[in-house]
Amino acid sequence: MKASECIEFLQQMLPRLRLRWPGFRKVRGQVCKRVRHRLQGLALADVAAYRAYLESHPAEWEVLDGMCHITISRFYRDKGVFDFLARQVFPEIARMVLERGEKTLGCWSAGCASGEEPYTLALLWQLYLKPRFPDLTMRIVATDADAAMLKRAELACYRYSSVDDLPEDCLTQGFVRVEDEYCLRPVYRDEVEFLKQDLRFIVPDGTFHLVLCRNLAFTYFDDATQSEVLRKIHDKLRPGGVLVIGSHESLPQGASGFWAWSGKQGVYRQMDRGDGYHESIDHQRR
Fold this sequence. Notes:
Number of helices: 13
Number of strands: 10
Structural class: alpha/beta
Mean pLDDT: 93
């Protein structure tokens, strides 16, 4: 299968999965390699034969969808984002939660892959924020569509390449070295609940003060699905809650209900419901 044939195939098939080709340009090699292996496993001659196979075997669409899951993750990915969360976001929303008489700060990590992102939140909270807000607990819900990734997340053991961006105290206090892996201590694992959910179709129960949806919906999903996901996230956020997207992503055209707390870091805050102010993100950026 030539690279050009795979690209044409993805451009045709991705919309059927509510995905968009531009998000896959830089990772097309990874997806094409998977498709190539799938063709070999099915003893199909080319992508034309695979198209026909998809039409005659509807269950195969789920297999193709799984081949399009991009799982690039590590602890403290994008240092500036997590520094901003620890320094400004967590203290601000913790004070907000306490002022409302609430006892739990709720977080949702959407597209959590093998757990590095939600576990980073747990480490930051326990090591840096909990001593300042001893009356608060943190609830972290982490969701992903890939069962294999979630299984790895629950094991919570990682190669050094996954943890080497962490601050030194997070690494030394948060992990135990087991042969050539770093295993997260149970006290940090216990704060995270993992759920198998596909963000395109389902979201977790409850509401949250902080939602991280980075390098997923606003990169790979098609325009209509991006807007739909953003509406769902808005409804899941508590008033004044915070949304974090990828630092190289942007919210859908015409998005409203948020203001840019740090556009550079992809951090947005929900406008208080009922304040009568709903300018679009595009307008705020001008």
